[in-house]
């Protein structure tokens, strides 16, 4: 690769300090945005959602595992599919190591999909993940949180996703939802979709600091390069 913007160390340091000022401004704005997110109002969850897990059925309250906060990753896995979504798998490759750190801050993390538990368990074993993953196939949870859609709505290009009515290519979509427990009362505090889940993807954060970046220009869609981590070509 030919370097077209080579400069002296002194000139590089000037440019780097200019960028640092912008990075610090971005960090302050990010902190302010996070504070605004924490200040969002809350919605009490009264519907009795039930999830299938390896130890039997669990309610939404039980997914907290005694913690005050619960983070749910909405993993795209239609009941008819034989494997989980590649992009969601890319997200979840980053999650297992976060579970004990989140627990230290009174927060539980689980993944939830509509596929039956046996398929989730088999795919989880293949991927080597250790975070809890439960099936919501027996409830309306995915539909109520706008990550699963009626095929008729998909065909009509009119699904309710990311807080708007839009076209979407699948009956399943990615997202993340956050819940807060007050005693036995459960409240929904936040959900994010689309690129909002990039906060969970440390690989992107690393690539964004490199000169070549994500290298997604010209692809059919941004994450077309992503594979299940056991399906990349051998080096």
TrEMBL record:
Look up the domain of life of the source: Bacteria
Q: Which InterPro entries match?
A: DUF899_thioredox, Thioredoxin-like_sf
Instruction: List, alphabetically, the SUPFAM superfamilies matched.
Output: Thioredoxin-like
Pfam families from the UniProt entry: DUF899
Q: What is this protein called?
A: DUF899 domain-containing protein
- List the source organism: Nannocystis radixulma
